[in-house]
Amino acid sequence: MIAWLLIPLGYLLGSISSAIIVCRMMGLPDPREQGSGNPGATNVMRIGGKKAAAITLLGDMLKGLLPVLLAQALNVEPLVLSGVVLAAFLGHLYPVFFGFAGGKGVATSLGVLLGANWMVGIGVLLTWYGVYKLFKISSLSALVASLFAPIYVYFIMGMQPLVYVALLMSMVLIWRHKSNIQRLLAGEES
What we know:
The protein is mainly alpha-helical. It is 73% helix and 0% strand. Helix 1 packs parallel to helix 5 and helix 6 (106-116) packs antiparallel against helix 7. The relative contact order is 0.13.
């Protein structure tokens, strides 16, 4: 029964906005009001540079990784683990502490997948990196990597609830990147 409490804990940890906290601590403008308006590492890079973006990226990954590692350490059943993964991811997208207006979820999805299975996480990371090296477009890299995530989960971990969660996360990431997709199709994405 106590294992199920990890799901709301995952959501609460996911709700911590690394971008907003980093920007406040570094005296930068609120990322929701500058650049793209997205509280994520890419926008923080635009308004605050590489150091602020790197700290944001690490924070967003860790808030996904830590609750999933805790669930793994407690050896929870696959359904609970999948719930923690999804809750941390959704916490980033819809953070209770910041008016339910969060980022797009790329770094947090990587964190939860690394926590669920390091080989899945590395596969997603390598996919992102490979696409980025070819095209130099972060959003395209994130979209392709997210499409491969459920496939990696299936082939590395087998058919379990996490496959469906990874598929759902992939669909949400694509939906959250709809403006990026429009710019990609128009050849305008930076």
